[in-house]
Design brief:
about 300 residues, mainly beta, 8-stranded antiparallel barrel, rod-shaped
Length: about 300
């Protein structure tokens, strides 16, 4: 009898150490038999009912497991990952505020310089060198535009389109030719439609003055003793043109120091024509002034400018 009692006590002591203990975060202590632990769950059976169902508890609810061999395991869980928008690259994902800040910083870098000196690539086609100065102001919402042109050869485009003085006075005056555009200067004030983008449209009034020199023929008819004859005398002239136009274009701020500008201006012009031989054909002995019709659109300009910004 005594041996039976001693054997039962030994078996009971062994059973006390054959169980796992599970401590939950709500301070609950359970005597269990651990079946499985994975990334999100702990599976166990109650130690007192090991033939019963497997119980599953969230790993995040478990604080500690004490195994039957005395080893303790503190249960930790990885933080939940936020869902990723597959339409965006996570490395490039920024808040709207950050994107707007980056955009403003890039624009401020482009416009940290306000002055632009540029060369008009179209002017050499007309026998001229064309330069311009542009200054932005009013937080990049406006600019002042000052072009200067100097001729070096015959202005072929002006010669082709300007027929104002052909056949004046019938057959007595003829063969008008532009020798050179001596100079052209202008002034424009433009309003820029976008003060916060690298590319902006601009529009505004423009006034300018251009001076040309050229030649024409004076044909003199007379009757010699036999038959008739014609004498042709070549004269020089000066032609002054005054422009009143609407300038319209686009400014590309490519880099901090390099810009491209394209513009087209349309409007009206008046012309003052003065010959160097006023005594024969022109009144008042001080030259002849001819004016274009100022009420029709009779003038246009265009340019493609490449320049250095500083």
């Amino acid at each position: 009898m005594k041996k039976t009692i001693i054997f039962s006590l030994l078996l009971s002591g062994i059973n006390c150490f054959a169980q796992d203990k599970l401590y939950k975060k709500d301070n609950t202590k359970l005597e269990v038999k651990i079946i499985e632990i994975n990334q999100t769950e702990v599976k166990y059976k109650l130690f007192t009912y090991q033939d019963g169902p497997t119980i599953i508890v969230a790993k995040s609810d478990v604080a500690l497991i004490e195994y039957q061999n005395g080893v303790h395991e503190v249960i930790t869980t990885a933080p939940e990952q936020q869902p990723i928008n597959v339409s965006q690259n996570p490395k490039d994902k920024k808040s709207k505020a950050e994107q707007e800040k980056a955009k403003n910083e890039a624009f401020q870098a482009l416009t940290s310089t306000k002055n632009l000196i540029s060369l008009n690539a179209m002017e050499p086609l007309n026998g001229c060198f064309g330069f311009s100065y542009l200054r932005e102001f009013a937080h990049n919402n406006a600019n002042i535009y000052i072009p200067v042109t100097v001729g070096f050869s015959s202005p072929t485009l002006n010669q082709a389109f300007d027929l104002s003085f052909n056949n004046i006075n019938g057959n007595y005056i003829s063969n008008y030719k532009f020798t050179r555009k001596t100079i052209e200067v202008g002034l424009g004030v433009n309003f820029q439609t976008s003060g916060k983008h690298a590319v902006t449209h601009f529009i505004g009034p423009y006034i300018g003055m251009a001076q040309y020199i050229g030649t024409f023929n004076e044909n003199i008819y007379y009757n010699p003793p036999i038959g008739s004859a014609t004498q042709t005398i070549e004269h020089g002239f000066v032609l002054n043109k005054y422009y009143f136009m609407l300038n319209n274009g686009v400014l590309f701020r490519v880099t901090k120091n390099f810009n491209i500008m394209m513009n087209v201006a349309i409007g009206v012009k008046t012309s003052e024509y003065i010959a160097n031989d006023p005594n024969k054909f022109y009144p008042n002995h001080n030259g002849y002034t001819y004016s274009d019709n100022p009420f029709g659109v009779n003038a246009f300009k265009f340019g493609v400018h490449f320049g250095y910004r500083f």
